[in-house]
Specification:
alpha/beta; Aspartate Aminotransferase, domain 1; Aspartate Aminotransferase, domain 2; 3 domains; seven-stranded mixed β-sheet; 12 strands; globular
Length: about 425
Amino acid sequence: MSKTSPIIYLDHAAATPLSPVAKQAMEPFWAQDFFNPSSPYLPAKRVREAYEDAKNRLAHLIGAKGNDLVITAGATESINLAFTAASNCLILATEHDSVRAVASRIEHQEIAVNQYGLIDLEDFRAKLTPEVDFISIAMVNNELGAIQPFSQISEIIRQERQRRLGAGEPNPLFFHSDASQAFNLIDLNVSRLGVDLLTLNSAKVYGPKAVGALFIKSNVKLSPIQFGGGQERGLRAGTENVPGLIGFAAAAAEAKAHLKSNRQHYVELVDILKNQLQTAQIEPVFLGHPKHQLANFCPVSFPGLDAERLIFMLEEQGVCLSTGAACSASKGQKSHVLAAIGLSDTEIAGSLRITLGLTNDQVQIERAGALIAAAVNQERQRLSEPATKVQAPKAQADKQQSIKNQDPKTHGVNIQSTKKVAAA
């Protein structure tokens, strides 16, 4: 890939660029209004006011109050903090590794999903036993873009709470959701969703990285996971990230203001992309349910191909995409998400996660689709070549090695062969 040629970035589920609006909002707090918001003098108090105002604005976007939020260093920290309320939990089989890792430290079970990555409600009901005190279900899956049916999920939880109350069972039941992928394209309201805890991530909504938030309902009691000056109601010690929160609030407000137009734009671009991919010589398998999928997601499998080879080939052409979650892909791990929806190893190996964003336009998507289809065709042709052609380089290397083993004094007789005969 040329250092000067523009890239076509198709991995917005991994990270989004900082929006100009967020950047402009942050700039005064890097060098001019740099004061510690906990300090007692007037300039610092003004910074405190700006911080609290940003928190209130962010909370308002999800139908909450500023006091309901704890600002963190990202979604992973928010999730770990939320799980301090858990001792026996249920999670989806397709949850992000940050949820799976913290759940593995306590009693937990995984709820099955169907072939589209949507929750199996009957399995959920069966596993929601009286011992369970915590449920964590991502609103939108980070590899498939599957949007979970929250109205049905929250109703099942409501019914279980009513049953426990009637039976005099004291065990609480808290509902957490990781809304990292959802916040950019779905209008969130904590009351409508029925959640007790909600994780938000600035890096997925065109805000600054390393900033997140956790909505905490008033009846939920959490324990801090780091200690110090007692900031964020004693739940998240450390000097507040003022520019980070201000950028997050600005980016989130901008996203909410353009939800409908952005969704429609992505629907049109994804249709163009799918049409291009269907010109490939291997029929693409589009993953997820199109009616229950975030608008900018286009996960696809080309069975029989190696997606990692495709990624390297496409990067040379200036197209950047991934095989799945960035944290798992970098470790070379097989996607547990794709395994959970029943894909074979061959289908998983040939899977690409394509996620569109504000950096893309129709010209880019048409070009990217054509380049992906061409790369697929090239790989198919390589794999379909006769074995003799594929093995030709190896045969040539063997011939060169044989020449090296010959002794000029023996007029071309292979010394290795002579030694074997003598030994026999």
